[in-house]
Amino acid sequence: MTGKDGTLQVVSYDGSSGGWGSVRSLGKIMRREGNPLSVPLLLTQQNKPGGFSCVSCAWAKPATPLLFEFCENGAKATAWDMSSARIEADFFARHTVAELEHWSDHALEQAGRLTEPMRWDAASDRYVPTGWQQAFDGIGAALRGMAPDQAVFYASGRAANEAAFLWQLLARLHGTNNLPDSSNMCHESSSVALPKTIGVPVGTVRLEDFEHSDCILIIGQNTAVNSPRMLHQLDEAARRGVPIIVVNPLREPGLERFTNPQSPAGMLGGMLGGGAHRIASQYHQPRAGGDLALLVGLCKLLLEWDDAARAAGRPAVLDHAFIAEHCHGFEVFAASIRGHGWTALERQSGLSRAAMEQIAGCYAKARATLGIYGMGLTQHRAGVDNVQMLVALLLLRGNLGRPGAGICPVRGHSNVQGQRAVWITEKPELAPLDAMERRYGFTAPREKGLDAVGVTQGVIAGTVQAVLQLGGNLVRALPETSLLEPAWRRLPLTVMVTTRLNRSHLVHGRAAWLLPCLSRIEIDQQAGGPQVVTVEDSTAVIHPSRGMRSPAAPRLRSEPAIIAGLAKALLPANPRVDWDGWVGDYDRIRQEIAALHPAWYANYNQRIWRKGGMARANPARERQWQTETGKANFLAPVGLDADPDMAAEGGEVLRLITLRSNDQFNTTIYGYDDRFRGIHGSRQVVMMHATDIARLGLTEGQAVTLETVADDGVTRQVPDLAVVRYDLTPGCIAGYFPECNPLLPAWHHARESHVPAAKAIPVRVLRG
Ligand SMILES: Nc1nc2c(c(=O)[nH]1)N[C@H]1C(S)=C(S)[C@@H](COP(=O)(O)OP(=O)(O)OC[C@H]3O[C@@H](n4cnc5c(=O)[nH]c(N)nc54)[C@H](O)[C@@H]3O)O[C@H]1N2
Ligand SMILES: Nc1nc2c(c(=O)[nH]1)N[C@H]1C(S)=C(S)[C@@H](COP(=O)(O)OP(=O)(O)OC[C@H]3O[C@@H](n4cnc5c(=O)[nH]c(N)nc54)[C@H](O)[C@@H]3O)O[C@H]1N2
Ligand SMILES: [Mo]
Fold this sequence. Notes:
Distance between the termini: 18 Å
Low-confidence stretches: none
Radius of gyration: 25 Å
Mean pLDDT: 93
Bound molecules: ligand MGD, molybdenum atom
Largest sheet: 6 strands, mixed
Helix content: 25-40%
Number of strands: 34
CATH architecture of the domain at 115-185 and 415-609: 3-Layer(aba) Sandwich
CATH topology of the domain at 115-185 and 415-609: Rossmann fold
Number of helices: 32
Structural class: alpha/beta
């Protein structure tokens, strides 16, 4: 396996996000995928009413879309699904599974779309074609031979609501809540923190809020790469003079300047050296995981300034009327925050008090602030505390439940939020189990299921016997790779419902099945005609999506059809669960969802066709707080010592951040260019500050091994990483996900939410 494409080249990127760079980067992928002409045509239907919903990120789609309502990375994802390459039976006749294990993540996916169901044949170590019914029967029989709780039904966040609803129903009818999802590795820290503080598990911001905001905070989210369509809202706000404050240990050039590829003037200007607009007005680089101390510092400044203002008879800095009417726990919170000293706050955050004053000063002046964040907050030991503190900062000035203000977790997969809302969750209390029992006449499992960390530990311990994946690539995405892979091979059963080959197909169980499905861009023809599916964006708005392209192969089935096939082979017949009827007409699946939760989904089949989509009710947006106290809760962190696993830090121990490049979607590696960061030709790199390179006696380009610092007797290493000088906070280093996952211990995860703490792994650098 290699993460390289020739030799490493590091250049300083002096362009801006968007613009010609993104057009060139996209062109390269389209040519390679063999569809240079049909991709652009199809793209005009992306994120449009009557068209299909982008398969890349979950950012919101405007009611009045731009002519090209897509971005470089959304277009890459579409081109990837439209690849002309196919994996047919002869592919496996040529390659054994053992041989394919040496291929890179990129090469595996580039082999093309899977075309027919397959079964692993132990005698020849090859996948061989099989019939759909044979596959369903084989999997059903294997699952019936084990206890329901020994099986895991993972969902990766891309499948639409209809498939996701059927997937959770299949698992629960079978008798388990083992329904982990990608959100367990991602925004689970938000899903825990937001209900406790504001009574909803999702953000409160809608697209129109960007027009009314006069201050935008972006903490730990790499917009230009991971939700590039948001650049349009940010660009528009920046042109109005709205301050945009970025908090990120790394300099992300894509967050500094933007050229709008939709605007000929901007593009022409880009060619001539102008045309790019600033995005960030302030850029602060804390230590990785230093956000908690920073947020405490900001709240402390606001409290102090409020005291001073009121003593001097000036207008208050805090929104006291809001706090009195809507909040709970303010006094205790304020006392706790005042108790922290500046020396500790500066040391823990890595930012000076002056820097904190600059941020707080801007925030204190603003009428309406948006708090936008991503993995930089959630993937830490203190991930839940981080989100609670960002909420607290917003509450202090009443920045929730009014135009232009609110909290905005930027979700990952295009339907990860929707999947959770149709009850893909290991937490039984989040699913309407009573209503399901009444409607389908069964006894639903009530025990908590396994989350992603639970699956990692269960597979390693041998208590999990079967893993079924609706999308995704768990062998690469989960932590603890070196213990996980050998254990994964001992699993009695692995089943992959996927579009492309990845490492989880090769590191497989003793019985292994591949069930290839349609992509969302493809026409989904069922008994009742071509079907429409629905996906929910980061702002809790649900959109219809209609496939437009002919299926990549005639034997592919839709995800709902595959799940129904599995269900019928596994479960006893139940007259109240009409698998065939539902698959024939997805309107009927949506009717089921609406019947189980009318408050969210009443008139589902009608409302999705409204201009702008169907907004799911969000009480916090209306300042109704569905928390235990009936108010929005101020929650202070227990301490600032955010990461006990970092005890040995200092000297040779560094904090490793694992993150995404511009040429990947999670474990799908489109190419080896990280355009904005100027790193080309290799992903086998470790980004380090010049002072750390010098301090540790290293040289740029030198190959090093990273080793996790932990005293649990396990050696975790990633060799052959080239040192790249990069502008990031000293003491912090960065490498790519998934290449660095072998360094992440399964126990190094956020308290409460169990999100692997992928943004601060204690490591040391070994030479060679
Ligand atoms: N093109 C593309 N789009 C994607 C994805 C993709 O892989 N490719 N993945 C999708 C998915 S599933 C997700 S979850 C999202 C992820 O989108 P993001 O949330 O943007 O995730 P990352 O790229 O992992 O890291 C985000 C940023 O956090 C910063 N960071 C790291 N540690 C810290 C910290 O301690 N504090 C602060 N303040 N910042 C920190 C990093 O430098 C980086 O810029 O994107 C989604 N969209
Ligand atoms: N160290 C470290 N680890 C991380 C992270 C990190 O930042 N650092 N990020 C975490 C995060 S935020 C996430 S979300 C997870 C991601 O983890 P996963 O969701 O498990 O991984 P993906 O790479 O998104 O899954 C890609 C695969 O999905 C399949 N696929 C693509 N399209 C479709 C489709 O339409 N239908 C179906 N059924 N299958 C499809 C393809 O076969 C493809 O190979 O990784 C997590 N792991
Ligand atoms: Mo994610």
